[in-house]
Task: inverse folding
């Protein structure tokens, strides 16, 4: 029997939880069909999340692609179908990718498996990032390098901590309803061991009664704890948080059944969510908003 | 002996011809090993100028592997690997961000040479050390007695501070006195 999972019309980090809620209790070897026919939009988190989800299934899932041509066209331009093809049985029409001169896709969905993938990501994004961060988001010129540093560090976490590969995508778009401003969004998702298991693998790990996904996220994201003894570890995430603070951005990290966020004043999100539907690995999102003239 | 090391060239030679960015720990470790091989050839006492002019991006992890782990070998309180002093040259603002963060994390400090030729002390340095280093830069070369006379601190304290700066490889100890680490030649 195939279980049909509805993909929300607008797929982002919040609505992705609706997919995971539907998956709750369904064994990994059960056949599922993700029905995205009515989907009209997906954030980088949505697209990388769908690929990650497929990697968690033992039985190859099916994906019914969006019926809207603009949507499938965008998903194609973001290289989603290029990778989904290897993970899903795909039903529906996929348009041929057309390269647009003015794309808001800063970085297409890209697999992160080896160290050299990070060099490729960094090389590919710098030129496009400079144009979009300065012209659309009105951020100072020095942000480009720091933005790329952040991207590099987040991607390295996948290789070092996930134990498997992951996916990264970066896009700029206008958040008309939520913020009325342009934003640039980085999403990095993997289906690896997650933060809790990563810390548990440390020789010095001593669990207490409160130990779980939430505490693992608090330890790593907020306190910079890592499974390594090397005191130099954990600086990447510290650098990411410093960057987020400087540019009034948002960082959210989901792992297992919890999600923690560094929430700026412009966002009504809660800093902590617990008892979410379980999902392997770690899913990270960084949002940098356009700088307004009075800032 | 003064040795100029173009970090970008080490990157291309040690990792990949096509790379211009110092990102990821494995890349940093490979570059550090390349620099160590170079240092192995230049004798027991040397000033190494690490030139970042042609480096694109430097992330925190790579800075930790290259700068912090390299420095830690030469500022050991026990037996340092050799008497090697470092000056970092050609760094942009984002390089500085990453390097300062890793220096602070490991309680390290080093000297950078700015494009106008001025030397700058960055990283974890207390007020006494910084004041002494600034004074040494002003004097060019000084014995503990010179530093004590110039700053008004007791001789023993001046001597101890200079010894600390030397152990941290921020001043060069010579028979004639202590000289600030800085890039001497172009």
Result:
């Amino acid at each position: 029997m195939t279980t049909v999972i509805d993909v929300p019309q607008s797929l982002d980090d919040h609505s992705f939880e609706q997919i995971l809620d539907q998956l709750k209790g369904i064994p990994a070897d059960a056949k599922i069909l993700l029905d995205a026919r009515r989907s009209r939009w997906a954030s980088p988190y949505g697209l990388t999340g769908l690929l990650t989800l497929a990697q968690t299934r033992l039985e190859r899932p099916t994906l019914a692609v969006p019926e809207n041509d603009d949507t499938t066209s965008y998903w194609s331009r973001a290289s989603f179908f290029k990778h989904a093809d290897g993970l899903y049985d795909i039903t529906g029409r996929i348009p041929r990718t057309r390269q647009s001169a003015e794309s808001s896709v800063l970085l297409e969905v890209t697999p992160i498996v080896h160290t050299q993938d990070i060099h490729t990501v960094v090389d590919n994004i710098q030129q496009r990032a400079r144009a979009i961060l300065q012209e659309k988001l009105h951020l100072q010129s020095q942000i480009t390098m720091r933005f790329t540093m952040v991207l590099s560090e987040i991607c390295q976490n996948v290789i070092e901590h996930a134990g498997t590969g992951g996916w990264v995508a970066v896009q700029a778009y206008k958040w008309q309803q939520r913020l009325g401003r342009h934003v640039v969004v980085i999403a990095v998702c993997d289906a690896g061991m997650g933060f809790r298991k990563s810390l548990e693998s440390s020789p010095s790990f001593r669990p207490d009664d409160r130990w779980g996904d939430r505490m693992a996220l608090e330890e790593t994201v907020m306190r910079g704890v890592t499974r390594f003894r090397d005191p130099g570890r954990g600086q990447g995430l510290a650098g990411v948080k410093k960057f987020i603070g400087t540019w009034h951005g948002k960082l959210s990290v989901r792992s297992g059944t919890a999600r923690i966020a560094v929430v700026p004043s412009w966002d009504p999100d809660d800093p902590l969510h617990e008892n979410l539907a379980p999902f392997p690995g770690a899913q990270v999102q960084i949002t940098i908003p356009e700088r307004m003239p009075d800032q | 002996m003064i040795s100029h090391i173009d970090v970008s060239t080490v990157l291309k030679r040690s990792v990949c011809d096509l790379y211009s960015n110092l990102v990821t720990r494995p890349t940093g470790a490979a570059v550090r090993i390349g620099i160590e091989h170079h240092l192995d050839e230049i004798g027991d006492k040397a000033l190494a100028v690490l030139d970042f002019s042609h480096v694109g991006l430097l992330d925190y992890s790579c800075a930790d592997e290259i700068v912090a782990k390299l420095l830690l070998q030469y500022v050991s309180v026990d037996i340092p690997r050799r008497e090697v002093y470092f000056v970092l040259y050609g760094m942009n603002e984002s390089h500085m961000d990453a390097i300062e963060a890793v220096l602070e994390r490991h309680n390290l400090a080093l000297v950078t040479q700015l494009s106008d030729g001025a030397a700058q002390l960055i990283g974890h340095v207390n007020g006494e050390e910084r004041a002494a280093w600034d004074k040494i830069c002003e004097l060019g070369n000084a014995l503990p007695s010179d530093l004590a006379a110039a700053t008004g601190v007791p001789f023993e304290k001046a001597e101890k501070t200079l010894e600390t700066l030397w152990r941290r490889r921020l001043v060069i100890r010579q028979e004639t006195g202590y000289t600030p680490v800085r890039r001497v030649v172009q």
Observations:
- Chain B touches chain A through 28 residues (CB under 8 Å).
- The longest strand of chain B covers residues 45-51.
- Chain B has a mean pLDDT of 90.
